[in-house]
Write a structure and sequence with these properties.
The protein has helices spanning about 15-20, 25-30, 35-40, 50-60, 65, and strands at about 10, 70. The longest helix is centred in the last third of the chain and has 11 residues, at about 50-60. The chain is built from five helices and two strands. α2 packs across α3. It has one domain (about 10-65): lambda repressor-like DNA-binding domains (434 Repressor (Amino-terminal Domain)). Strands 1-2 form a two-stranded antiparallel sheet.
């Protein structure tokens, strides 16, 4: 499902993925999606399903709320 301009979902997927030393392809393989889906998520062009958000959180070793938010994340957080 795509996000609308009225309902943005902010995320830290790229930041956390890079901290883990993972490529988009590696994260995509770990959660069972195409690597382009990870790119769409990172750019805010796609909102993940709950299941995908939970899988990403598990792979990145973080809580869903640490990765996805309806409010922008502060820089350096």
């Amino acid at each position: 499902m795509s996000r609308s301009k009225e309902d943005p979902v902010f995320n830290r997927v790229e930041e956390l993925r890079l901290q883990q030393g993972l490529s988009r392809q590696q994260l995509a393989d770990a959660v069972g999606v195409h690597y382009q889906t990870i790119g769409y998520l990172e750019r805010g062009e796609y909102s993940p399903s709950l299941l995908l958000a939970l899988k990403i959180a598990a792979v990145l070793g973080a809580e869903v709320g640490e990765i996805f938010s309806i409010k922008p994340f502060r820089k350096g957080k």
